[in-house]
Amino acid sequence: MITPEYCAMMARYNAWQNAELLTSLKAMTEADLRLDRGAFFGSIFRTVNHLLWGDTLWISRFDDGVGPAETDLTKTDTTDMTQSLGQWSTERSRTDARFIAWADELTEADISGDLTWFSGSIQADISKSRAMCIVQIFNHQTHHRGQVHAMLGAANAPMYTTDVPFLPE
Is the pTM of this model over 0.85? Predict the structure, then answer.
């Protein structure tokens, strides 16, 4: 399904896209970042916070590091992980570095078998293939950055390429 090389490439792609995204976010006013734009999480800032929250949760399942508590998601706000763009940038860089470090050490064995965790979404233990969970990580990142990219375009913010073939070496 996937390989360690694919995971390393996607971790680098994720970090690159988040750095590009930050450039656009810095060009916006605080009010523009927090304006409700009718997206699922409302604003650009709430959406990037949710993405950071999800990334931190998922990477903690794989690297045994610190992540958000597995709580009842009907009672948890996944969009308030950071309070400022500066704080978001710091946490985003830290999380991206975790993904790269994790992916760079992956072996075929690390991708095989199942991952079991307590799911806050369904309030129960769940077990799925590690490979599928890794695909979920990268799919979730791309999905929400796509939402943000659309909101940036509608706000006339600076745009950037999102195409994998342009990933810097």
Answer: yes
pLDDT computed for residue 72 by the predictor: 63
Q: What is the pLDDT of residue 74?
A: 67
The two beta strands, 114-119 and 124-129, are antiparallel
Q: What is the dihedral of CA 118, 65, 81, 20, to 10 degrees?
A: -120
Quote the tokens at residue 40: 């699922």
- Angle at CA of residue 74, ends 70 and 80, nearest 5°: 75
Residues 24 and 48: beta-carbon distance below 8 Å: no
Instruction: Write down the CATH superfamily of domain 4-161.
Output: dinb family like domain (1.20.120.450)
Q: What are the phi and psi torsion angles at 125 (to 5°)?
A: -70, 145
Pseudo-torsion of CA 32, 47, 101, 62, nearest 10°? 170
Nearest Cα to Cα of residue 168 among 3, 5, 4, 19: 19
Block residue for tokens 């095989």: 112
